[in-house]
Design goal:
The complex is a heterodimer of chains A (314) and B (277).
Chain A lengths: L19 H13 L8 H21 L2 E3 L4 E3 L3 H8 L1 H33 L5 H13 L2 H11 L6 H8 L14 H26 L3 H9 L4 H12 L1 H17 L2 H6 L11 H10 L3 H32 L1
Antiparallel strand pairs in A: 1-2
Chain B lengths: L1 H34 L2 H4 L12 H47 L5 H13 L4 H11 L5 H24 L4 H9 L4 H12 L1 H17 L2 H6 L8 H11 L4 H31 L6
The chains are: A mainly alpha (314), B mainly alpha (277).
Chain lengths: 314, 277
């Protein structure tokens, strides 16, 4: 997924004054004629009505007590509720914990796996295929499967641990562990994509760099630190941004594995949005949506600008 | 050289064992449990089934609740095929014009496209809009939702790929008297074929596996899709793990088939952007 800013496709037309404007406009018309603006129209209608309009509307409805039939403006009440009620605020903090953990793990483990899988290791085709396959499997299916594998008494994981004499914890039933267990399953499912993106980045590094390093007698660590890491920067940026967006917006896996429980120990913003909607608190649910919007934008936008600017300096 | 090869072999074997434990056992567990009888599956053991009951399980799962799984498969197939078709045509049109046309609006359009990737959809306002339009709880409503939320990703791929189609071809077609529609559908569209295949494969898997959007926007038994049946079966088959896992197995098969046949396109689609930056 290309998140890079669009390169200017053509240099901007130099500024001109007076009569030149007329000719430029004419020229523009002629150049653009085979590419009519109405090609945007069908996509713009669907996107505008079902995505942009609701998003804009959410900024109004977040400040209301809302039941579709009637709306009552309540100011910041919903937001106050959101940040003062423990069961809602827990989802807020959990969202950050979950996103940082999963994307951190994917960024680091993905790079290591990609380096291993681009070396001359035996059976790397098989390994790549196996690591990537969970990406394509239904999240709900994975969630249910692991819910059963992680069962405190009958689950395969704890049975295996019991064989070597360890009493496994209640992975999904212990409130302090539930979110971490789900995050681990998220990494299990998503690591393949991160690895694949890194592999594409590593393969694109010109071989001359590695050969030059070899001639100079660079250690494996030096090659990693001074060639691989700087050169996979675009891939790393893609992995960081994709996994952060995915982590902050996560819903399916949590919903399938714990439904936010036990209690609200593994709730995130996205699951509280659904719970409030299901409970009929539409305004509160929409306020949650606005909070999620702000969180995602606040996390991703600066990162996006900062990382991309840095990569241009290189 | 020989030492290195031995080392690669040894590490390879270690990696294979690790991958089997971490990645294959969960899938093998799904498979073996789906093959077992109810009694045996209730033990939740990772073992070879002593008695194969897969066909019975399959029939039971399909017949449950008046063939809900069959209906769900039909619904999911319809949603996937129709929404991906619309997505491909509309996104190709946008990506193509966005790459070719010079306009002061391009910045704004690019911004809107990017927003579609980042911004989480506003759930309740979207439901409200759909209710007003009378498309809430309908399959065609869900199709339009999938299109709206999937467009951005497709547009980015098409825009990037359109840059690699030489303008000389456009000019040749224009000189031959082609209009904008002919230029797009008869000249550009065929040239975009490889990226079209990528978009189709990646988005089909995404739409087929989608859980949140059907849950929000098409609840109810009538328009049920496969991911929702799976979710609902969790409580239905609380004690019949063999049936639950048969359902998981059924739902895993379509992506698996996609992966086997279109591995290259999936990889291309999902890693685009990793190199260019």
């Amino acid at each position: 997924m290309s998140l890079a800013p669009s390169q200017p496709i053509r240099p901007p037309i130099p500024p001109s004054t007076g009569p030149a404007i007329r000719t430029r406009r004419k020229l523009g018309n002629r150049v653009n004629k085979p590419y009519p603006g109405w090609f945007y129209a069908p996509a713009a209608v669907i996107y505008g009505v079902l995505f942009i309009a609701p998003t804009l509307a959410s900024f109004y409805f977040a400040f209301t007590r809302w039941s579709f039939a009637e709306t009552e403006f309540v100011g910041f009440d919903n937001f106050v509720t959101f940040f003062t009620e423990p069961r809602l605020f827990k989802g807020f903090t959990n969202t950050f914990i979950y996103a940082v953990l999963t994307s951190g793990a994917k960024v680091v483990l993905g790079l290591l796996l990609a380096i291993v899988l681009t070396s001359g290791i035996f059976a790397r085709g098989y390994l790549r295929a196996v690591i990537f396959f969970p990406v394509l499997v239904s999240t709900v299916g994975v969630g249910i499967t692991f819910k059963i594998l992680l069962d405190p008494f009958d689950g395969l994981v704890n049975k295996a641990l019991a064989v070597i004499g360890i009493q496994g914890p209640g992975w999904l039933t212990d409130p302090s562990l539930a979110l971490l267990s789900i995050a681990a399953v998220d990494v299990w499912k998503g690591i393949g994509l991160a690895t694949l993106i890194y592999i594409a980045g590593i393969v694109a590094i010109p071989n001359e760099y590695f050969e030059a390093a070899k001639v100079d007698g660079a250690s494996a660590w030096a090659v990693f630190r001074h060639i691989t890491v700087p050169m996979v920067r675009p891939a790393m940026i893609t992995v960081i941004i994709l996994s952060l967006i995915g982590g902050l917006r996560t819903f399916d896996l949590i919903w399938a594995m714990t439904g936010g429980g036990p209690g609200f120990a593994s709730d995130v913003i996205a699951s509280t949005i659904y719970k409030q909607y299901a409970a009929g608190f539409y305004g509160l649910s929409t306020a949650g949506n606005v909070v999620l919007f702000l969180v995602v934008t606040a996390a991703v936008l600066p990162l996006y600008l900062f990382l991309n600017r840095k990569s241009k300096d290189l | 050289m020989k030492a290195e090869r031995t080392r690669n072999l040894i590490w390879g074997i270690v990696a294979i064992i690790g991958s089997v434990v971490i990645f294959l056992i969960p899938f093998a567990f799904i498979l073996t449990t789906a093959f077992k009888t109810q009694q045996e599956s209730s033990l939740l053991e990772f073992s070879w089934p002593t008695e194969f009951a897969f066909l019975d399980n399959l029939v039971t799962v399909l017949q449950t609740r008046d063939y809900v799984v069959v209906r769900a498969f039909i619904n999911s197939t319809v949603v996937t095929v129709v929404s991906v078709t619309i997505m491909v045509v509309l996104a190709a049109m946008v990506g193509w014009v966005l790459q070719r046309r010079q306009s002061r609006w391009n910045g704004l359009i690019n911004f809107a496209v990017l927003a579609g990737l980042i911004v989480p959809p506003a759930v309740v306002p979207t439901i409200f809009v759909m209710q007003e339009l009378g498309i809430f709880r309908t399959l065609h409503g869900l199709i339009l939702i999938e299109v709206a939320f999937g467009l951005s990703f497709c547009i980015l791929l098409f825009r990037a790929f359109a840059a690699s189609v030489p303008r000389e071809l456009d000019e040749a077609a224009l000189i031959d008297g082609a209009g904008p529609l002919r230029l797009f559908f008869q000249v550009a569209f065929p040239l975009l074929r490889s990226v079209i295949v990528t978009v189709i494969v990646v988005q089909s898997v995404a739409v087929f596996n989608d859980f949140a959007n059907p849950l929000y926007f098409a609840p109810g038994d009538e328009n049920v899709t496969v991911q929702l049946t799976l979710y609902n079966f969790q409580s239905q088959f609380q004690t019949s793990w063999n049936l639950l896992f048969t359902d998981i197995l059924l739902i895993t098969i379509p992506p698996l088939i996609m992966y086997i046949f279109f591995n290259r396109q999936i990889v291309a689609g999902m890693t685009s952007g990793a190199v260019k930056g």
